[in-house]
Amino acid sequence: MPINDCMNKVKEKIPFHLHKSTPVYLGATAGMRLLRLQNESAASEVLQSIQTYFISQPFEFRDAQIITGQEEGVYGWITANYLKGNFLEKNLWSAWVHPRGVETIGALDLGGASTQISFIPEESMQTFNSTLQVQLFGYQYSVYTYSFQCYGRDEAEKKLLASILQDSDNKSRIKNPCYPQNYRTVLTMKYLYGSLCSEFLKPVNYNPSESVHVIGTGDPVFCREAVSTLFDFKSCKDREDCSFNGIYQPKIKGNFVAFSGFYYTVNALNLTGQFSLTEFNSSMWTFCSQDWNQLPFMLSKFEETYARSYCFSANYIYQLLVRGYKFNADNWPQIHFQKEVDNSSIAWSLGYMLSLTNMIPAESNRIWLPMNPSLFAGLLLFFTAVALLCLIFLVYSYVRSRMQKNTCQVEHVFAIE
Asked: Where are the bilayer-spanning segments (predicted)?
């Protein structure tokens, strides 16, 4: 969506008299992180132009920055748990308190240039750089979070195409098992190798304007095999505390919410929410076996660039979650594939905003119940029982009094006779 269209929608949503007092922040993620690594001056120019644009808008512009991968992961985790109500809840006195016994959920985010996993492990491993201490409302959370640069959906697909071309004898025509049968397209060498993520595969005689014809073969078996080569699983062989590429990861724990690219991919497979790994594999196999001409009838919203890549995305998600993060048939149903909670989108941006505006302060006066909930429940039950006994006693006394009165009246009548 063009930035002007986006800002016009914002202006419509926010009342006019609040425009000047509404703070605006801009956070850039993996795409800009890659650009900064590739060309720092170009990244600075982009940020400067964005700042100039927002300053001209009727809002209170405060900052534009490129956030780190870890920050992106943690902000996604904050968003998911904030929307799920895992940080605060209202008690009987309508005061916000920290919910007792509520477990936080993990967050799985799949973007275009990076992917993030964030969760609280069974045991805190503070010696690793991937574990962050997050302070929210006076409570501390030890969150494992890792961001895999160049492992977003778009960049991963480019690497796959680049590697297929590298292994092909015909450098102007390749077959992609992850594209649907009978699908054809033409891509430029710049599209394949223009990113920092795939430039290491760049051929010696690289010509950015040269065209490559890509033909889809729609082969689920070869697609899965091809996608697996994007990961270095051997470096984590026989290690439970390792995902891929030799990266440390504690054993996954609890429920997870998978959003962004995860959600859109499973939604294309006609899946959503919770489902088994068997269902996912079955739907993926069926989708990947389809002819290109069938996809417009299978997808609720058909766009070529997305439709051609859903098979790749599904296989990529399988390799990432099952072989990488170590989800299996038993704990796969603990993943909730969701787009939003109560009409609020799950994304890192909400956590970013909450953090910058201090709507979730690190330190906060803890609001406690007047007494322990168990004790309160016990006392409530006790007083309820006492009240019932008193009521029963009053009713009994009243009935007995009436009966005695009636008895006296009868005796009086007999006495007169």
From this structure: 375-396
